[in-house]
Every structure is written in C-alpha cells, then in structure tokens.
Amino acid sequence: MGLLDGKTILITGGGNGIGKATALMAGAMGANVVVNDLGGTLTGDDAGDAGPAESVAAEIRAAGGAAISNSDSVTDFEAVQEMIESAKKEFGGLDSIINPAGILRDGMFHKMSEDDWDSVIAVHLRGSFNVARASVEYFRDKEAGNYVFFTSTTGLIGNIGQANYGAAKLGIVGLSRILAMEGERKNIRSNVIAPFAWTRMIASIPVKDEASAQRVERMKRAMRPEQVSNLSLALCADSCDTSGQIFSVRGNEVILFSQPRPVKSMANIEGWTPESILDVCLPAMKPSMEDLGPTTSVFPYEPI
Hints:
Layout: E1 8-11, H1 17-28, E2 32-36, H2 51-62, E3 66-70, H3 77-91, E4 96-99, H4 114-142, E5 145-150, H5 153-156, H6 163-183, E6 188-196, H7 200-203, H8 210-222, H9 225-234, E7 246-250, E8 253-256, H10 274-285, H11 295-298
Parallel strand pairs: 1-2, 1-4, 2-3, 4-5, 5-6, 6-7
Antiparallel strand pairs: 7-8
Helix pairs in contact: 1-2, 1-9, 3-4, 4-6
C-alpha cells in the first residue's frame, strides 16, 4: 500500500525539475497523477511543447502507475478548469494540487519592462489564483482538498534583480494563508514551500566569480528536486493535518518559517509627530529591524 493510494493529484510544471520529480514520486506512491506542463522555455516566451508533460506521464504509466498529461498554461483560467475536469473524468475526482509551475525574467527593477513584470506575475500569482479558484468550490462541496503552493526565499527574504518574482512569490504566501483560514471548516488545507533545489531556474543564475561557481556546484550536489518532493507529497497525505504554514526544504533540512507578527511597539501618549518619530521612535525600533541581507546571509551554512 502506497501512502497516496487512490489519491488524485494535479501537478503543474510537472515536465521538469521539482514538478517532474514530484509527479514521478506521486505515481510511485500510488497516486493518480495529472501532469501539467506548458513545455515552454524558462522565460515563458514561446508557444510551448506537449512533449515534456506526456513524457513524464508515460514514465509513470510504464512503471505501473496511472497518469495523464496536459500542456495548457496555468495563466488561462478556462484551461485550468479543464485540467480539473479531466482529473474528475479520468480518475473520478481530485484531492490535491501541487503548483510549482513558474518562469523567470530577471532584471534590475529600474530596467524592468512591463511585459517582464506582467508575465512573471501571470504565471506565478495569477496561476496560483487560477488553480485555487477553479477547484475550491469542488473541494468545499466534498469537504476535502489540499493545496501545496510554491513561494521562494526571494519573496520571503529578497534577492537583487528579482522584483517581479519576489512580489509574485510573496503574494502566493498571502493567498495560501487565507485559503487555509477560509478552508479550515471544510477540511481544505493549504501550505507553501520555498524550495532550494538544483533546477533549470537555479541553473540560469549567472556565475560571476570562483566563489559563486563553487557554491553552485555544492548546491547541485546537495540540493535535489526529490528532496522537495518528499515534503510536497507528505502534505498531501490523509494523515497530515498541517495547514497555513510556510516551509522551506534545503537539502535534507526541512525549515518552518515564521510569519509576520509584531516585533516591537512604541507608544506616545501625547501623539507622535514626524520629528518625534525620527528622533525617538525609529531609533528605538532600529535594533529590531531586519537588514537588507539576501538569502545567503540568512542561510550562510552548507546544506545538510
């Protein structure tokens, strides 16, 4: 008996990287898998290709599992609705959606085009809305359902040159949290994962010096897509009651992130003025403020 026997899972971005590893693992664990992948380039600026999704679905079937493929874009709401209908028609229902589909169009914000902003927001944030909105009423009707969304440390912590990506990924955190809150009474869970894994997205980051090259090589060896798949699929199990959380997977380390809560408060019974805020309030709060360090400053140690 597999952990996911009889479950049906829609996995977007399932033709490559984390999505592919998760689809193959889900099939091996007994799930029926709908493998979605546009089959496009990393920047999402081509028409796509049905081959990657079908190749993964065929591999699942060849290993004795059950899978179908789909090559539509998560940015198309009607196409996402059709993915969900296909799951119901082929496998009799849908239990979970895992949504790592994404693109990158990096660049400094002062040079970023509207198209590069809109395209990244469309795939990541609008795509996450689409898969949730197209399925949430079905999940509410059957009083069971589960979402695993993907955020990034670029959204949670920050990274230069990725304003579009960071904005989208932090937006997904807010979406997931509210889906979890609104879905609690209907047994609908939602969580997000910020993955560290060697994928074509990570491979696209420019290597500027020898130290960066060594760091990339260590990442390639130590942080693999299937390590992220383990958590993704654990969150889909019937025995999991976790919801509304932010996780990260870094090699063999599973990390639970804090969520925004007040860290310091300053009150002035006479009321603040701009001058007193500058003189008293902000200086008192400064030791509690976060610095502008990127992800590498928060995770300076080697992956386990």
